[in-house]
Design a protein that fits this description.
The protein is mainly α. 74% of the residues lie in helices and 1% in strands. The chain is built from 21 helices and 2 strands. A hairpin with a 4-residue loop joins strand 1 and strand 2. Helix 6 runs parallel beside helix 12, helix 12 runs antiparallel to helix 15 and helix 15 packs antiparallel against helix 18. The chain is globular and about 65 Å long. Its EC number is 7.1.1.-. InterPro entries: NADH-Q_OxRdtase_suN/2, ND/Mrp_TM. Keywords: Cell membrane, Membrane, NAD, Quinone, Translocase, Transmembrane, Transmembrane helix, Transport, Ubiquinone. It holds the Pfam family Proton_antipo_M. Its main location: membrane.
Amino acid sequence: MDWVQSLRLIAPEETLSIVGLVLLLVAAWGGDKAARLISILAVAALVAATFMVAPALCGGAMGPDTSAFFGQFRADAFASYGKILIYLSAAASLVIAPAFFERYNAMRAEYPILVLFAALGMGIMVSAGDLLTLYIGLEMNSLAAYVLAAFLRVDGRSAEAGLKYFVLGALASGILLFGMSLIYGFTGSTSFSGINAAISGGVSHGVVFGVVFMLAGLAFKISAVPFHMWTPDVYEGAPTPVTTFFATAPKVAALGLTMRVMLDAFGDQAQVWQQIVVFVSLASIVVGALGAIGQRNIKRLMAYSSINNVGFMLVGLAVATPQGASAMLFYLATYVAMSMGGFVAILMLKDADGEAVEDIASLAGLSRTRPMLALALAVIMFSLAGIPPLFGFWGKLLVFKAAVDGGMIALAALGFAASVIGAFYYLKVVKIVYFDEPADVVTGESDVWHKAILAVCCVFISPLGFLLTGWLGRLADTAAQALTAAI
């Protein structure tokens, strides 16, 4: 093994690690007064890491030259695609945080450092080529996330969210670790390539049980049914900038990791896990849609929307083809933009005293008091519902097309029918905003950074976003090809 080459391949992770440790020292010496400086430096580090991984995606990096440390780490185009989404989402989550936390005098120096180390763990997750690397990245992300969920100490809901996330996350981690142990015991390897070689002649019952347990643990991380129970409570209770972070970057990392495990380690024996993924996909679509209908808190509604959208993305994974993987990656990019825009819009919903407004009924008549914010919210809701000509429609179309081309017509038909249910609660929000009598609750001013990020997200998912269809589609194809080269 060429150690110099391996160290070169992990340069983004080295950069984030060193910057994170230096910022820890700055936080220790400067205290909370240095929080803004630390946030700026953390954003700069994440943007720098984005530029460092971009060449691998643009150049279509794949094969042995992207393998580091005896195959434990993969710096291929697929990992680069995931890391770009992760790092940009984490940077945006840091940019929107100060305006929120300063209202509660709760902006702490450790907040950007926790986000930075969580992003580092997520980058390791999507680059994992071994079960051990997978677990190290997953735990690095999870340990930071547990603290972030309970970060707003003046709010009891935040403490409750952190505790629930920790307890259920520890359970899911144990389930995942048990599945990994079974797979190692029955294949004799922890590397994905070794596992793939060991099961090429057939799969034993022990490996099947291991796959089931691993999928259960991963389903928790992506908040898929039936391991979704933590999502509405944590999304509602956690500080809104943290919820924004949870809904974007960790979702990319967990879905990318699930794709890596299923298509890399078990790609040759897809029949072992396809039925499970089909069930989880349909259950997530239906439960997410039905669960959102009765919600009165907009953050809880977005939580069920997240579950619903994960179900649609898993349709692409269930197909187990390069086309399905590409469609899933394309949808993932549009989902990140829609979720980021949605939660930034929620951050901008404030009353005259600057307090957050989360009750959906309080948004009545928003179009007459805050017309631009109402328009942005409507664009996001229509896009999440998959209504053309918005970009969210194109993502759904691609995953359904991949399912049809892969012979899973029933899955595509059921998913399409269930998407109609989901459209109801999105349209309900638009109806309240545009057609109900004004409640005159949302009257607070918004931060300039919130407006800027919301504008970028809305332009991306608007009909103008279709100009990027070819470019983004090519990037998704390149990433999928790097992942599914061995299928």
